Amino acid sequence: MADIIHSTRVLPAKLEPAQKEKLARELFQVHDAIFAGTDFDTFNAMIFSPPAEHSSLLLHRDASRRLVGYCTMHRFRRQIGGRTCSVLRIQSGLYKEYRGKNSNFSFMMLQVLYNWLSHPLHPMYFFGVMLHPSSYGVLHKFARGFWPAPGQDERHPLAAKACELFASFNINPVSPERPFIANLGILTRDSKDDHQFWQRSTKPSDRFFLSMNPGYRLGDGLLALVPLSPVSVAHAVFRWLRIRKQKRGQV
Questions:
Q1: What is the model's pTM?
Q2: Across residues 109-127, what is the average pLDDT?
Q3: SS3 (DSSP) at 90
Q4: Which residue ranges form the domains of the chain, and what is each CATH number?
């Protein structure tokens, strides 16, 4: 497993057009190695010009300063259940040899706290369309009280809020029978061995994701909604610290 040597936070709004163009080309090279189905212009708009109130970008580089991964978080304002809310969305990509160390965790937690302090009276949610079992696995590992999760159904209180967000971001479900599955045209470049690995996995989060979203290899994504608060951040940090302690004990 390779090491990330440099991680730097960038505010896209403060970059000059030429800087954005150069960085977008670097980012797209990483993205295109991991995902299929997105051209450069579409990706550039997703990262640098979404209709968001605030955006922050984390860049991961190796010892030679080559870009090996990224994570961007955008904050949107939405109406959910008649209340004004802050909604966070994430896009990320990391070369395979650099994964497994939760390298985006600190960035995401700090951004959640920053965005919460910016609008402390607004309820806050993370909203995502999970394209891969690994993404859902991270959510299952760190999130508290999210939807969907094993043992829940569409009567869960968060399900109706998730439907509102689906519509507000102009994301259409693949069918009325599968209202929480959408195809964004983005596919993870899994090899045959990768696919077999996930199919053989016995982890409850992997089994649940595959049962809910069997068409993920075709670009289908599972909607996920997580209420965010200082308590949920504390829960995630506790889980992260416990995992770090366990890994250190295995060295």
A1: 0.93
A2: 92
A3: strand
A4: 1-122 (3.40.630.30), 126-251 (no CATH)
Contact in structure between 217 and 190 (CB atoms under 8 Å): yes
pLDDT(251) > 60: no
Does residue 129 have a pLDDT over 70? Answer: yes
AA letter at 176: P
Q: What amino acid is encoded at 169 in this protein?
A: F
Q: Map 16-80 to HEC letters.
A: CHHHHHHHHHHHHHHHHHHEECCCHHHHHHHHHCCCCCEEEEEEEECCCCCEEEEEEEEEEEEEE
Tell me the pLDDT tens digit for each residue of 56-67. Answer: 999 999 999 999
